Amino acid sequence: MNVTENPIKKFVIVGGGTAGWIAAATLSKSLQGSDTEIELVESDEIGIIGVGEATIPPLLAILESLNIDLAEFIKATQSTFKWGIKFEDWNRLGESYFHPFGTLGRPIDGNDFYQCWLKSRAQGDNTPLMAHSPEAVLSEHGKFFLPFEARNTPLQAAQYALHLDSGLVGKYLRTYAESLGVKRTEGMIECVQQHPDGAIKSVELKNGKQIGGDFFIDCSGFRGLLIGQTLGNGYEDWSEYLPCDRAVTLQTKGADEITPYTIAKAQKAGWTWRIPLQHRTGNGYVYCSKHISDEEATETLLNHVEGEILTEPKVIPFTTGIRDKAWDKNCLALGLAQGFLEPLESTAIHLVSKTMAFFLRMLPDNMPNQVLINEFNRRVKADYEEIRDFLVLHYCLTERDDSPFWQYCKDMPIPASLQQKIDFFNVAGGLIPGTEVLFQATSWYAVFDGMGVVPSRYNPVLDAIDYPKLKMSMDKGKQAIVNIVQKQPTHRAFIEQYCPAKDMPPG
């Protein structure tokens, strides 16, 4: 049968927030011009989680695919720019390191730059690895760059992401999606009806209204109203590897200095974040309840924030892991309904958008094919496992033993897939190639280096290279980064000139 003979005529999205409206925006743009209906059901009685959100570079591709003007988006969502993440106190107290986007250096005579750096290090060169990262140097100096001035310079390939207000992002995408025909229905869902085969038939609101559809997208948050409560999908718990299970969050007034990076500072039972927006700052403490009470975690956060406090602290419990099936029958789970990975590397929005992009590549007809569903679920789980392993890397390499939490992290079991990556890196100074992986070599090198892990050797092929020539090339590259960074405007100056946030009404 031709797939167009039995198309999906109506999508129903249950839940709004960032995940729900990303789904609505993506579907409405992709299906523009078709007869497909898209209806989103959400209740103003249910709040959204998130007081400020950090992202990673793929967000920019999402906005571009939706034909959203970046400057207008930044103005509407109080966004600032982000070159990466500064990690404080993760390996030892008093130490810090930077995880940048982009790449490190450039190949020298066809040889991988990291191998060249290892060779130079073995020769006694103590130049930090991050001296060869444009993003790290830009962050150190609090600078952003003018793209047209970056051509044919070390900044040409620099990558950035955004800090943004997730609530404002939801509002922005709602306006966008509604302009393309998405229907929003306000109401609390009372119950869910199913077909005899278990597939979802409709949802019923408290006011008695029934909303039917062919395919349902569950964006109902941790409760997983459709994927969990209705279809009975279990949840694979990864707390053994990522023991933090709660977060306390609050907002503070914006600081005079807007850092172009996220700060993740290790604490005795987890870590705190600082995400600077244009008019305020998002703050939070992700922690393990086995090692600290909610009250003590809240007090720790209050003692670490800067500026006037704008909101009451809010405690959010969570369980790290993933649903057994992200797609089951005629239901796709997104966002917190699909799974949760702590926001250490700002991957939440990416997982939503990548799930939607992959779903559209496999867009089913009105009779979902189990072959497609199985492959989809395998790929989604692989994405989660890749990110899980990368997050665990930040913890398991620590040398800290000053609290029970860090003692556990230092000695905890780790996934076999991560152990394989660590063993390979220690011997080869590189990574095992993966398919469509999110975190490329620079990310792994940054964390390994920041946590004090250096491979046992460099590739002996580099012994054929004249070392003085190699050293000269590396020094010139490092200086070229410094020279061009010094010419760039400060982060705040760039924002004020090109994309200042629109005035927001009180509250």
Biggest pleated sheet: 7 strands, mixed
The CATH architecture of the domain at 3-80 and 164-238 and 323-381:
3-Layer(bba) Sandwich
Strand order of the largest sheet: 6-5-15-16-17-14-18
Distance between the termini: 54 Å
CATH names the topology of the domain at 3-80 and 164-238 and 323-381 as FAD/NAD(P)-binding domain
CATH class of the domain at 3-80 and 164-238 and 323-381: Alpha Beta
Could you tell me the strand content as a percent range? 15-25%
Binding site for 7-chloro-L-tryptophan: 82
Binding site for L-tryptophan: 345
Pfam families: Trp_halogenase
Keywords: FAD, Flavoprotein, Nucleotide-binding
List key phrases describing it.
507 residues; FAD/NAD(P)-binding domain; seven-stranded mixed sheet; six-stranded mixed sheet
Structure description:
- This protein is of the alpha+beta class.
- The protein has a domain of 212 residues: FAD/NAD(P)-binding domain.
- Helices cover 35% and strands 20% of the residues.
- It has a seven-stranded mixed beta sheet. A six-stranded mixed beta sheet has the order 8-2-1-12-21-20.
- α1 runs parallel beside α9, α4 crosses α14 and α9 runs antiparallel to α10.
- It is globular.
- InterPro entries: FAD/NAD-bd_sf, Flavin-dep_Halogenase_NPB, Flavin_halogenase, Trp_halogen.
- It comes from Thalassotalea litorea.
- GO terms for molecular function: monooxygenase activity; nucleotide binding.
